[in-house]
Specification:
Elements lengths: L1 H8 L26 H14 L6 E5 L7 H4 L3 E4 L5 H11 L4 E7 H7 L1 H10 L4 E6 L2 E2 L5 E2 L18 H4 L5 H6 L4 E8 L3 H20 L4 E7 L3 H4 L3 H9 L11 E2 L2
Parallel strand pairs: 1-2, 1-3, 3-4, 4-8, 7-8
Antiparallel strand pairs: 5-6, 7-9
Length: 257
Amino acid sequence: MRDELYNELVKSENLVYKKTSLMTDNVLSYCPGCGHGTAHRIIMEVIDEMDMQQDTIGIAPVGCSVLAYEFMNIDMQQAAHGRAPALATGIKRLWPDKLVFTYQGDGDLAAIGTAETIHACNRGENILIVFINNGIYGMTGGQMAPTTLPGMKTSTSPFGRNTALMGNPLKITELVAQLPGVHSVSRQAVHTPAAVRKAKKAIKKAFEYQKENTAGATFVEIVSSCNSGWKLPPAKANEWMMGEEPYVPVLSTGAIR
């Protein structure tokens, strides 16, 4: 009787949401409030909806993003710190019919990997770069990153980032948008249901551009909180993130190019 009731309840017409099979059954190990889990899910949902599981290759380098292969049920390749765009370039050139994307944090993409990011985009490599930007080195202890905002406190800038001493934050997405080899650039976020829907749409568009081979790299920034590194509860971290314009203009997310 119980099995019959269960089967009745889980009929497709009664399901509001079903987890994509492209997410593994491993329990997410990210900190509560982190945007990585949501970003993982929407990327996998897009690949599932495009029926491209067997033809997609993801590259995750060092940092919190390296855990992606634990949760994404697709072919994954790990790269050295910052080198994901270089590896993605080689994979895409060998298998041009595959969807190829990198999944990188700001400490990886905008610091040790700046050269690989800039040159892959400038060459117009037909890959998608997913840039998770929380303004901090999350995995290694909450140190200041190139994207850390003015006045923002980290473990290595306990009194806040002093731009006179430490320089200005690197606006990597705006920088990439100026490169001639880039087809499209978008800034998104995953802190509200509406933002998640927009981010998913941006990722799907980027993959479709790649599949159509429309000549150029695609770049999607996803602004995320790191409440552990920021020393804030998840809700407060999102509030703080929303107020830090112009460096992280979440209120004006969307296509930059």
